[in-house]
Every structure is written in C-alpha cells, then in structure tokens.
Design a protein that fits this description.
alpha+beta, two-stranded antiparallel ribbon, homotrimer, 3 helices, 60s Ribosomal Protein L30, Chain: A, five-stranded mixed β-sheet, about 30% helix
C-alpha cells in the first residue's frame, strides 16, 4: 500500500504545513536527502502541550504531542514533494525511507522516559511508511524548548526522483 | 553576487578558524556534504557570552553570540574549502547551499525564545549566501554548554565540486 | 592496519549490539551514509553511569561511559555491515570514515566540561579508525537522558561499497 493510502486509511488528515518563522525554511533538500526543521506540536495553531514532563505534562500527553510534531513534519514533506506544492498526500509517496528522527523532550531533572514520548512520532512513521518508516533516532531531554513546547521533532527522509 | 563579495560588502571579516580541541576536527566532508562541528561564540579567543538566557544573558546578547558562532563556522568552511587552505573568502563561494543549522541555547527553565536567539546565526547565513543560505533548523534549549557558552551552533552545508 | 585489526590490537571486544526499543532501529542507511541511533552506556545489560555530571558522576566516569556508548555504536556498525550480519569485526572495515558524533551529557547547571566527557567516544573512534576516525562533533549538556543515562552518543559514518 502506498504511504498516501496508508495515511488515509489511518483516518488521518494532513495539517496545514507549519510555516517557519524568520530566516529558516520548513525543509531543505540536498541530493536525495530532505531535512525537515524541528517541528513543534501545533494543532490548528495551538500547541498541544507546553512545559516539562512529568510536572506539567503526562508521558501519554507528551507522546501525543510528539505524534503531532510528526504529523506536522509529514505535512511539510507532502507539501515540499507534491508536484504542484499543493500539499497533496501524494507527496508522501516520494519518500523512499525515513532515515532519522531527532526528538527533544522538555524534561524535569530525573525524568527518564524520553523514549516513550518519542515513540509517538516514531510509531506514526512506521504506520504511514511501513518498513520504510523505521529509522535511526536520538531522543534526549531538554530544559526548555521554543514557545514552551513539550516536544520538538526533526526529521530526515530519503527522497526518490 | 558571490557569497565572498556579499560577505565583504557586509563589512565582515573572517575570524581565525577555531581549532577543535582533542580528538575531533573542525569540519568533516562526506560526498558533497560538509559537517561543521558545534561552534561556540569565540571572538578573539574569548567567549562573547556565557551562562543561561535570560538570567545571565539577554536575548539580544545571546542572538549576537549565535551570530558569532555562525561567523566561526564560516571561517572553518572558508578554510576547509579554499584552494590553499589559507582561509580565503573564496572558499565560501564553493558552498552550494546551507542545509541545516543545529542551535543549542543555554536556557533557564521556562525560557522559550530559542528561535529569536538562533536567528542570529540563521540571518547571517541568509545575508552571506542569499536564497542558498536558507536552511532547515532545529533550535532547542540546553541546561549547560561547553566552557559555559551561551550558544552552540553546528552547520551542515552542501559543497560544489 | 585495518580497523578490525586495530580494534583487536586494542584488546577490545565487541559488545552484543544493543537492540532498539520499539519503533526505531539501531541504524539506518541512506546512500553511503549510515546513521546509528543514540547509544546509551550499556555494558552487559547495565548502564555504566546514571545521573548528571558532576553531582552524581565524575568527569572521568562520564568519559568512560561515553566510550562505552561508542563501543555500542561500533557493535551496531559491525553487525549492520558484516556480510552475514553476524556482528563480525570485519564489518568495521567497511567504514570509510566517521563523519559526525552527537554527544549529549546529562549535566548539572553550570557544568562546562562536556568536551572532556565526549572525548571518551571521540578518542575511541580515532583509535579504531585512525585518521578516518576523526570527525565533526557537537557536544552539549542535557537536563535528563533516557533511562537516566549519563551520556548518549549518536554516530554518523560513511560506508564503502
């Protein structure tokens, strides 16, 4: 099944691709590699979760936020790779594989479940891209993230064509 | 206008390329990708800013420090890519595009303006390389950075030839 | 001398390659680049060091932990690149060069010796791969890491063939 079909079968909809602020861009391609900028858990213009885990946000809510970061990355990928740049799902079908996720989790000192949080984004990639969605990953804690977000996820994918 | 000319027109001068300490190198090339090691805001051998934002350093001072990190990265790029390795500005003209910036900002808990700080480096790249200077970026907070620096910036560029 | 011979001459043994938890994989290849997931300092199933430097772990112990992270990355590289996937040392001989290390050190606020800690991994790479083991690096502090580990190291290598 193509990633675009898997995505639709999951009952998911692509969010509006978040715009980058100021002097950087949502994604940058070099050769067959597409680097997606660090994504925050924006949902309809609002952050799904802010503040550190676990004092301000539960592990489950942070995992859901990580998934939202992943969705926003997919929206940018689809928008960048679709023929007309219109954000069509078909852009996802040009992903040869997901290569790497970098996941930063706003953490209290002593919080150690960053992997469980990061799985929110990782599992989404596998659901959408299947075996090609399995990736290398670095998940770490951060004392503070942009706009107070609980999670930030950057994504590297290999592109075909 | 070539990047070397833009750079000069900005009234900028390349710093002496910082040497890496110990068992790593300032930059490493694979294929057409040049990975520049994380740069600190050294200016004439001294750090422009140390300690967290905002308790020890203002956002504006941290942004200036991020720009200095970027300048040091450019010095390494120029040195690595110039014909004789002499650090000539012409090395900058072999940058096909800036691909990714990783920006770590030493932050107090609750500080959320890492993007504004990171813009110091991002805007420099756009000023020097124009459209080719626009890049993907991940900007996050860090509890502590090497030598107490307020900012660390790593840079990935695509190289021609 | 081949990396596999250097490795043996150092009196080192490859650990069992750590398995990735859940929805990501130990390493992912794209073109000639092999991205190894962030490694923790597991030694025979137990973490060599947990908690921040310096309040819970000395710089020397953290450096040893960083070296163990590096060893685990080498085990994954050997396993991924050996013909039969059997984890033979010969897999190391297919590394054309070590390109980048990302090192996260669990740090108390005010700790500034992340480079000394990271050298544990960097020096291992140079010992095993010689000149080809010298790499670009970003070393930063982190408030908290997975499972409470003191260090996490991710590795990017260029592969031949």
């Amino acid at each position: 099944m193509l990633p675009s079909a898997r995505f639709a079968a999951l009952g998911l909809a692509l969010p509006t691709p978040p715009k980058a602020v100021a002097a950087y861009i949502p994604a940058c391609r070099t050769g067959n590699l597409l680097y997606v900028s660090g994504q925050l858990p924006f949902d309809s213009g609002k952050l799904l979760a802010t503040g550190p885990v676990p004092s301000a946000v539960t592990v489950d809510a942070a995992k859901a936020a990580a998934r939202q970061c992943g969705l926003n990355a997919l929206a940018i990928i689809a928008d960048t790779l679709s023929a007309g740049g219109g954000g069509g799902l078909q852009g996802l079908d040009r992903v040869a594989r997901v290569v790497r996720l970098g996941v930063f989790v706003c953490s209290d000192a002593g919080f150690i479940q960053q992997p469980q949080v990061a799985n929110g984004a990782s599992e989404l990639m596998e659901q959408v891209f299947g075996e090609a969605g399995r990736h290398a990953r670095a998940a770490v804690g951060s004392i503070a993230l942009p706009l107070g977000a609980t999670v930030e996820v950057e994504v590297l994918v290999e592109v075909t064509g």
